[in-house]
Amino acid sequence: MPKIDINGRSIHYVTTGSGPDTIVFSHGYLMSHKMFAAQIEALSQTHRVIAFDHRGHGESGLCQDPFGIYDLVDDAEKLIDATCDGPVHFAGMSTGGYVGLRLLLRRPDLFKSLILIDTGANAESAASLKQYNQLLFFVRLIGIKPLLGKVLPLLFGQTFRNDPARRAEFNQLKSYISSLDRTSVRQFGRAIFDRDDVQDALRGLDKPPPTLIMVGEDDIPTPPATAKSMQDAIKGSALIEVPKAGHTSPLENPAFVTEAIAGFLTRQT
Questions:
Q1: How confident is the model at residue 269 (pLDDT cuts 50, 70, 90)?
Q2: In the Cβ-directed half-sphere of 25, how many Cα atoms lie within 13 Å?
C-alpha cells in the first residue's frame, strides 16, 4: 500500500478504481480509512477513489509533538496535489470534514464537490472542550483503553453497539482504538478540539462547490442541529439525516450513506 512523505511523516493511503473523477475520503478521529470500506468498494466501480489515514491513525506515522488543525489541512492539500491532476470530490467525516471545510477556504480550486459527514463548521463549545480535555488528560496518564466506556458511546450509536450481528465488527473497532498510540491520540485530539469557527468564512463564499451534508440521527458530538447550522452557512448545500446511526454513519449505516453519496455524485456529472 502506498505511502507519501508529507510534513516530515509518512502518510498512508489507498487508491482504487478508475474514472474521469476522483473521490478523496478523509476519516474521523480514532478511525482509519477502513471506516469507508463500503463506500470505497461501491464507488470505485465508477470513480477513482483515494482514502488516506491521518497522522497518528491507521498505517500513517505517529504524531508525538503538538500541532494544529491547519497542519492536517496541509497534509490533505499536499496529498491531493501529489496524487490528483485536478479537482476532486472530497468526502470528510468528522475530522475529515473539519479539514475539508478549511481546505475549501484555502484552495477552492481543489474541489468539484464537498461531502460532509457527521461534522461541523463551528468551534467546540466551552462545555464540550472541558469534557474532551478531561478525557485527553486521562489518555496521557492511562491510555485510551480504560476510557472506552466513555469514548465508544460518543463514536457509535446504540443501534450499532447493540447489534448482535455486528458484534465482531464492533469488537474489531474496539481493538483498533485500544491499540492507538496514546501520545498521538492526545496530540491529535488537542488539534481538532481547539479548532477555529469557520461558519462566517463559509457564509462569505459566493459560489461554494455542490455540497452534501449527512448526519447520523443519533450523533452526539456533532448532532443534527450542528449539521443544520453548517447547511445554513454553505449556500445551496443539501442536508440528509442518516437513520439508525451515531457519529460514524458511513460505518454504522453503510448502505444508506453509500446510496446518498452515489446519487449526489450522479447529479454532478
A1: confident
A2: 31
